Amino acid sequence: MRELPAFRLLLGQLQKIPYLASKNLYRVATYILTSNESEVDKLCTVIKDAKQKVGMCKDCFNWVEGTDLCAICSGKSREKEKICVVEKWYDLTAIERSGDYRGLYHVLGGAICPLEGVSPDSLYIEPLIKRVERGGVEELIFATNSTPEGEATASYIASRLSANGPKVTRLASGLPMGATLEHMDRVTIYRALSERRPF
Ligand SMILES: [Zn+2]
Protein backbone atom coordinates (compact mmCIF):
# COMPACT_ATOMS: atom_id res chain seq x y z
CA MET A 1 0.00 0.00 0.00
CA ARG A 2 3.08 2.24 -0.07
CA GLU A 3 1.98 3.58 -3.44
CA LEU A 4 -1.32 4.78 -1.90
CA PRO A 5 -0.32 7.19 0.86
CA ALA A 6 -3.59 9.17 0.91
CA PHE A 7 -5.66 5.98 0.95
CA ARG A 8 -3.55 4.64 3.77
CA LEU A 9 -4.09 7.82 5.77
CA LEU A 10 -7.85 7.57 5.25
CA LEU A 11 -7.88 3.97 6.48
CA GLY A 12 -5.67 4.89 9.41
CA GLN A 13 -8.07 7.64 10.43
CA LEU A 14 -11.14 5.43 10.05
CA GLN A 15 -9.41 2.74 12.08
CA LYS A 16 -9.49 5.07 15.07
CA ILE A 17 -13.30 4.88 15.16
CA PRO A 18 -13.81 2.23 17.85
CA TYR A 19 -17.12 0.84 16.58
CA LEU A 20 -16.06 0.34 13.00
CA ALA A 21 -15.20 -3.34 12.53
CA SER A 22 -12.28 -3.93 10.18
CA LYS A 23 -14.39 -5.31 7.34
CA ASN A 24 -16.58 -2.20 7.49
CA LEU A 25 -13.49 -0.02 7.38
CA TYR A 26 -12.91 -0.88 3.73
CA ARG A 27 -16.61 -0.46 2.94
CA VAL A 28 -16.68 3.03 4.44
CA ALA A 29 -13.43 3.96 2.66
CA THR A 30 -14.89 2.71 -0.63
CA TYR A 31 -18.10 4.65 0.00
CA ILE A 32 -16.14 7.85 0.54
CA LEU A 33 -13.90 7.35 -2.49
CA THR A 34 -16.79 6.53 -4.82
CA SER A 35 -19.12 9.28 -3.58
CA ASN A 36 -19.21 12.50 -5.55
CA GLU A 37 -17.26 15.41 -4.22
CA SER A 38 -20.24 17.40 -2.95
CA GLU A 39 -21.40 14.44 -0.84
CA VAL A 40 -17.94 14.15 0.72
CA ASP A 41 -17.86 17.93 1.34
CA LYS A 42 -21.25 17.72 2.99
CA LEU A 43 -20.10 14.87 5.22
CA CYS A 44 -17.00 16.79 6.31
CA THR A 45 -19.05 19.92 6.97
CA VAL A 46 -21.70 18.21 9.11
CA ILE A 47 -19.06 16.39 11.16
CA LYS A 48 -17.22 19.66 11.90
CA ASP A 49 -20.45 21.50 12.52
CA ALA A 50 -21.76 18.88 14.95
CA LYS A 51 -18.44 18.83 16.78
CA GLN A 52 -18.65 22.61 17.20
CA LYS A 53 -22.30 22.94 18.11
CA VAL A 54 -23.29 19.82 20.03
CA GLY A 55 -22.46 19.81 23.71
CA MET A 56 -23.66 18.09 26.85
CA CYS A 57 -26.48 19.03 29.20
CA LYS A 58 -24.85 20.30 32.38
CA ASP A 59 -27.20 18.25 34.58
CA CYS A 60 -27.83 14.94 32.82
CA PHE A 61 -25.16 14.72 30.07
CA ASN A 62 -27.70 14.28 27.31
CA TRP A 63 -26.72 16.04 24.07
CA VAL A 64 -27.65 19.72 23.68
CA GLU A 65 -27.26 22.40 21.05
CA GLY A 66 -27.00 26.03 22.02
CA THR A 67 -28.29 25.60 25.58
CA ASP A 68 -26.95 24.47 28.95
CA LEU A 69 -29.89 22.26 29.80
CA CYS A 70 -31.49 19.68 27.53
CA ALA A 71 -35.18 19.77 26.63
CA ILE A 72 -35.92 17.03 29.19
CA CYS A 73 -34.16 18.74 32.12
CA SER A 74 -35.83 22.05 31.31
CA GLY A 75 -39.21 20.47 30.47
CA LYS A 76 -42.01 21.90 32.61
CA SER A 77 -44.05 18.71 32.68
CA ARG A 78 -41.23 16.38 33.74
CA GLU A 79 -41.22 14.80 37.21
CA LYS A 80 -38.01 16.28 38.58
CA GLU A 81 -37.91 14.01 41.64
CA LYS A 82 -37.18 10.92 39.53
CA ILE A 83 -33.85 10.23 37.80
CA CYS A 84 -33.41 7.30 35.45
CA VAL A 85 -29.74 6.32 35.18
CA VAL A 86 -28.69 5.03 31.76
CA GLU A 87 -25.36 4.11 30.20
CA LYS A 88 -25.64 5.89 26.86
CA TRP A 89 -27.66 8.51 25.11
CA TYR A 90 -29.36 5.92 22.89
CA ASP A 91 -30.66 4.16 26.03
CA LEU A 92 -32.32 7.44 26.98
CA THR A 93 -33.96 7.68 23.56
CA ALA A 94 -35.11 4.04 23.82
CA ILE A 95 -36.87 4.82 27.12
CA GLU A 96 -38.31 8.07 25.74
CA ARG A 97 -39.74 6.10 22.80
CA SER A 98 -41.56 3.79 25.21
CA GLY A 99 -43.58 6.93 25.94
CA ASP A 100 -44.50 6.42 29.56
CA TYR A 101 -41.60 7.80 31.57
CA ARG A 102 -41.95 11.44 32.67
CA GLY A 103 -38.95 11.78 34.99
CA LEU A 104 -35.42 12.99 34.30
CA TYR A 105 -32.32 11.06 33.24
CA HIS A 106 -28.64 10.82 33.95
CA VAL A 107 -26.39 9.59 31.16
CA LEU A 108 -23.27 7.92 32.60
CA GLY A 109 -21.39 7.68 29.34
CA GLY A 110 -20.94 3.89 29.63
CA ALA A 111 -20.50 1.17 32.24
CA ILE A 112 -17.59 0.34 34.50
CA CYS A 113 -15.32 -2.14 32.72
CA PRO A 114 -11.81 -2.44 34.19
CA LEU A 115 -10.67 -4.73 31.34
CA GLU A 116 -11.35 -1.96 28.85
CA GLY A 117 -9.95 0.71 31.12
CA VAL A 118 -13.35 2.20 32.01
CA SER A 119 -13.12 3.17 35.69
CA PRO A 120 -15.80 5.01 37.70
CA ASP A 121 -13.76 8.20 37.19
CA SER A 122 -14.12 8.00 33.43
CA LEU A 123 -17.93 8.05 33.70
CA TYR A 124 -20.30 10.81 34.88
CA ILE A 125 -20.84 9.14 38.26
CA GLU A 126 -19.51 11.96 40.46
CA PRO A 127 -21.88 14.50 38.91
CA LEU A 128 -24.76 12.08 39.60
CA ILE A 129 -23.77 11.72 43.27
CA LYS A 130 -23.57 15.53 43.51
CA ARG A 131 -26.94 15.86 41.80
CA VAL A 132 -28.51 13.55 44.37
CA GLU A 133 -26.77 15.34 47.24
CA ARG A 134 -28.25 18.66 46.07
CA GLY A 135 -31.60 17.19 47.16
CA GLY A 136 -35.03 16.95 45.61
CA VAL A 137 -34.46 13.45 44.18
CA GLU A 138 -36.91 10.90 45.53
CA GLU A 139 -36.18 7.96 43.26
CA LEU A 140 -33.13 6.79 41.34
CA ILE A 141 -34.03 4.20 38.72
CA PHE A 142 -31.12 2.10 37.49
CA ALA A 143 -31.63 1.37 33.80
CA THR A 144 -28.07 0.27 33.12
CA ASN A 145 -27.91 -2.79 30.90
CA SER A 146 -28.43 -6.33 32.23
CA THR A 147 -24.78 -7.14 31.61
CA PRO A 148 -22.08 -7.79 34.25
CA GLU A 149 -20.76 -4.27 33.56
CA GLY A 150 -24.20 -2.68 33.85
CA GLU A 151 -24.92 -4.51 37.11
CA ALA A 152 -21.51 -3.62 38.56
CA THR A 153 -22.06 0.02 37.66
CA ALA A 154 -25.46 0.09 39.40
CA SER A 155 -23.97 -1.59 42.51
CA TYR A 156 -21.08 0.85 42.58
CA ILE A 157 -23.39 3.88 42.41
CA ALA A 158 -25.70 2.40 45.07
CA SER A 159 -22.69 1.90 47.36
CA ARG A 160 -21.85 5.59 46.99
CA LEU A 161 -25.27 6.83 48.08
CA SER A 162 -25.86 7.80 51.67
CA ALA A 163 -28.28 5.75 53.78
CA ASN A 164 -30.83 8.57 53.89
CA GLY A 165 -30.63 9.06 50.15
CA PRO A 166 -33.44 8.51 47.63
CA LYS A 167 -35.32 5.27 47.00
CA VAL A 168 -33.30 3.15 44.55
CA THR A 169 -35.00 0.88 42.02
CA ARG A 170 -33.93 -1.29 39.11
CA LEU A 171 -35.79 -2.08 35.88
CA ALA A 172 -37.89 -5.22 36.36
CA SER A 173 -36.16 -8.57 36.31
CA GLY A 174 -37.41 -10.71 33.51
CA LEU A 175 -35.23 -8.84 31.12
CA PRO A 176 -32.88 -11.42 29.65
CA MET A 177 -29.32 -11.30 30.98
CA GLY A 178 -27.12 -9.47 28.51
CA ALA A 179 -30.10 -7.55 27.10
CA THR A 180 -29.36 -3.97 26.17
CA LEU A 181 -32.04 -1.28 26.15
CA GLU A 182 -30.98 -0.22 22.72
CA HIS A 183 -32.24 -3.48 21.21
CA MET A 184 -35.44 -3.76 23.21
CA ASP A 185 -38.90 -3.04 21.88
CA ARG A 186 -41.11 -0.34 23.40
CA VAL A 187 -43.47 -2.73 25.16
CA THR A 188 -40.61 -4.56 26.91
CA ILE A 189 -39.11 -1.27 28.09
CA TYR A 190 -42.52 0.01 29.21
CA ARG A 191 -43.09 -3.18 31.23
CA ALA A 192 -39.57 -3.15 32.71
CA LEU A 193 -40.12 0.43 33.86
CA SER A 194 -43.59 -0.01 35.25
CA GLU A 195 -42.62 -3.21 37.11
CA ARG A 196 -39.37 -1.87 38.49
CA ARG A 197 -38.21 -3.36 41.77
CA PRO A 198 -36.24 -2.11 44.77
CA PHE A 199 -32.51 -2.40 44.16
ZN1 LIG B 1 -30.48 17.25 30.68
Question: What do you see in this structure?
Answer:
It is a single chain. This protein is an alpha/beta fold. It has 2 domains: 50 residues, Helicase, Ruva Protein, domain 3, CATH 1.10.8; 136 residues, Dna Topoisomerase Vi A Subunit, Chain: A, domain 2, CATH 3.40.1360.10. The protein is built from 7 helices and 7 strands. The protein has a 5-stranded mixed β-sheet. Strands 1-2 form a two-stranded antiparallel sheet. Strand 5, helix 6 and strand 6 form a beta-alpha-beta unit. The site of zinc ion has 8 residues, from loops.
Which secondary-structure class do the elements indicate?
alpha/beta
Ligand identities: zinc ion
Number of helices: 7
- One letter per element, helices H and strands E, the order comes to HHHEEEHEHEHEHE
Quick check: average pLDDT?
91
Number of strands: 7
- Gross CATH architecture of the largest domain: 3-Layer(aba) Sandwich
Strands ordered across the widest β-sheet: 4-3-5-6-7
Euclidean distance between termini CA atoms? 55 Å
Q: Catalogue the unreliable spans.
A: none
What's the gyration radius in Å? 20 Å
Please describe the biggest sheet, giving its number of strands, its sense, and whether it closes into a barrel. 5 strands, mixed
**How many structural domains are formed by the residues?**
2
- Give the overall silhouette: elongated
